[in-house]
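Researcher: We're teaching a course module on how sequence relates to structure. For the next exercise, students receive a sequence and then see the predicted structure as tokens, so they can try to spot secondary structure elements on their own. Here is the exercise chain.
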Amino acid sequence: RQYYYVGGMPAAVLAHVEQRGLKEVRTIQNQVLQDYRRDFSKHAPAREVPRINLVWDSIPAQLAKENKKYVYGAVKKSARAADFELAIQWLIDAGLVYKVNRVTTLAMPLKIHEEISAFKLFMLDCGLLGAMSLTPPVMLLLPSTDNSGKGDFTENFVCSQMKSLSDLPVFYYSKDNSQLELDFVVQADTAVCPVEVKAEENLQSKSLKTTLSENPDMHGLRFSMSDYREEGRLTNVPLYGARS
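Model: And here is the predicted structure for the students to work with:
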């Protein structure tokens, strides 16, 4: 939970280790965000800078939605993919966001089943996500019974951990006209592994349970605040072990 708030920016981590207080950590995060905006203007094509800023600013709100599929119309009314494709790619190439594409088939290799027009965008750092969304420390540092305000941070955290493993293809799964959605799907060696992410210890995972029942050859992963344990073809992994 402390990591949700502090994140991994070196200066923010140092302030936290030196016990300079939560306000100082947030001040540093805001400074980093300002520096990024200056970099947009300095390094990106001039005509793309306003679009880059719009995409960047939209990420916290898009992640907070129940359906986290990136919606261009939420960036700017009547916007089309062609309007923002270059801006999104610039942020990806700069290492500031992660793009996770959807797959509609759970089969190897996942790459050939990806749908490039449906994707989610995650930020490189959950601490910066908290600063951008003006999330109060209490919402991140204290346990909650309803996962309020933590679901998007938890998914962003798990995504950033998995993306740091360069040889791990990461996608998410859903189908049109279906409520079944998996937070992530990864390809581990020759296996397709469905992944569910839980912010606390409410471990109800209907989509994951349904997926495993329909695919008896699969083994699922669930990241949560609960301890490590094996539950048949499902492994519960503490959130701190997401990268392992």
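Model: If you want an answer key for the exercise: The mean pLDDT is 93. The first strand starts at residue 97 and ends at 103.
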